[in-house]
Structure formats: structure tokens, C-alpha cells
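Example: Putative RecA/RadA family phage recombinase.
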Amino acid sequence: MKNFLSHGEAVTLPAPADLVSGAGVLVGTIFGVAQADAASGAPVVLVRRGLFTLPKTAAQAWTPGAKVYWDGAQCTTVASGNTLIGAAAAAAANPSETGTVLLDGTIR
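Written out as C-alpha cells, the predicted fold is:
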């Protein structure tokens, strides 16, 4: 197949802002985790699939399998106005600063 480029689990896109390695980022409708630090506008590899520890709304308790959304700065279980990015892969207490999220690479 001459037109195959990659599996798409990691994609290189322009960073929409200054990023640090491990930061969640939404570029249009593509969500991923920055593989390395990047300055705004510079190319950054975003990993789109896998299990990640990501920042979450501290005052939420998560159950495994709960839908997880990105609010522009952290993960939340609130759907309204946010982008679905994956599912909770483990319970997370209220309060807690991080949660385990399964990213499936789906564009929403």
C-alpha cells in the first residue's frame, strides 16, 4: 500500500501554545499528550492512544469506565461545553488532582 503513512497513534502538529512534556492538548478536534516540550507554533508530537495520568477537576470522584472530557486545562466528567477524550481507567477519589485516562484516539 503506497499511500500508508502511519498508524496515527502519534501525530506531529503545531503546538497551539507553549507546552511541557506530558501536557494534554487539543488541536482542533485532535486530543493528545505532548511527547516533549514545545514552543507555541513549533511542531510537537501528540500521543493519541494509551493510558495516561492527567490532571483532573479535584472535586470529582471517577469510576472506571466513566466518560472523560477535556475542558481546555484539565479532565472532567462534565460533558457540557467540553470535548470527549476517553474514559477513566481507574477510580479517582474526591479530592484528587489526577486521574488515569484511557485515550482511544477517536476524533470527536
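Residues 10-104 form one domain.
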